[in-house]
Amino acid sequence: MIGRMERVDLHCHSLVSDGLLAPAEVVERAAAHGVGVLALTDHDDVGGLAEARAAAQRLGLRFVDGVEISTTWEDTTVHILGLGIDPADARLREGLERLRAGRAQRAEAMAAALGRCGYAGALEGAMRHAGDARILGRTHFARFLVERGAARDVRSVFDHYLVRGKPGHVPHHWAEVAEAVGWITGAGGVAAIAHPARYRVGRAALRRLIEQFRACGGTAMEVVSSAHTAEDTREFARLAAAYGLLGSCGSDFHAPGESQAELGETQALPEGVEPLWPRLL
Ligand code: AMP
Ligand code: MN
Ligand code: MN
Ligand code: MN
Question: At residue 97, what are phi and psi to the nearest 5 degrees?
Answer without folding.
Answer: -65, -40
